[in-house]
Amino acid sequence: MTAATTVRPAAAPARRAPAGRARYAAVVAGLLAALAAAVLASLALGSVRIPPGQVLDALTGRAAPSPYRTIVLDVRLPRVLLGAVVGAGLAVVGTVLQALVRNRLADPFLLGISSGASTGAVLVIVLGVGASTALALPAGAFAGSLLALVLVYGLARRGSTMTGPRLVLAGVAVSYVLSALTTLLLVTAGRPEHFQEALYWSLGGLGSARWDTLALPAAVLTLGTGVLLALARPLDLLLTGEESATVLGLDTDRFRAAVFVLASLVTAVMVAASGAVGFIGLMAPHAARLAVGAPHRRLLPVAALGGAVALVAADLGARTLAAPQDIPVGVLTALTGGPLFLWLMRRRPEGAAL
Known about the structure:
The chain is an all-alpha fold and 354 residues long.
């Protein structure tokens, strides 16, 4: 009898563990199905509607050369894939930034990184520096995001210490200044075509997607997410607080600096590819955290899939709501993300972190 009673408590966790794995698998499977449905709808719908059967024939190579096949493979598919990559990248960066500053309202825009990338890229467009080079925009965006990072760090540091709330406040200030600088660059652009290109790009959009613009964002997303998954445990330690993470052996200042640089690189490449698309980095991590919890080994992949679904769906709306006119996708994400941001602020207790 005694032996039987000692076995039962040990068996209980074993019964609960598969349930957690089953829930995680169900969430991932649901997001993959939603992404597949969003991709198929995006390939079929638009100013020209294509039957789903012909879309599948084009994707599998069974379709003969036709205008439909050209639209699917050469126009819509690169755009849809770029939307998935950019959405996933912004969501991953948002997830990491929320851990670094211990604030669920943080995202690349709130901390000034996206604003810096936008300023750098718009400066490249307006000045025409390296216009013939595919890496000109990403390089300008990365330089701008690093400048924003340096400014945020300098403003947030007090002596040898730096806290998450000070980072957020510094990021908001830097973001406003850089947004104003971007507007000034647009207003003073010497050539009207530069103004129109930069203005449309600053609002966010995937209309310029081509197969040759997809490789760099996809590679950066893959490598960046892989590195961040390897850093899942230190990111989890940050959630326990500055003092606890330090006691457990994490050099928080050095770790923050390194991850901020990586986040800046990923953000810069995504912004250079799609323009300034806001709120994906805020919405997707929050929804993923509600679904699978806070541990980053599970959170990062779910957030990436959620961001991909969100941006592909938003771009579908941008192409179809006012067809044949193409609405900047950043406008739609702002219209949906702004109210969510206010809702999160009202739900968040005063002084709460994550």
